[in-house]
Request: fold
Amino acid sequence: MRTFDPATPAHADLAPLAEHPWARGTHRDATAHLVRLGWTPCGVGDWAVGLRSPSGHLAARVCPFDPAGLPRPVPAL
Reply:
């Protein structure tokens, strides 16, 4: 089981995602691609799936109603 490592930068999880054509697939394609890259499903709701990044620094929410490929602002912690 992988554990959270605060020394691992989050960009290590994001780099493999940069070149993927997100807007051309479905929410199922997006979920499958993230799982192939080592992201772990960690929550399932009525319409969305949550995934944990390989390092544990990030989380993704995949939903059929969210536009793919469009940056969304991240709230400050």
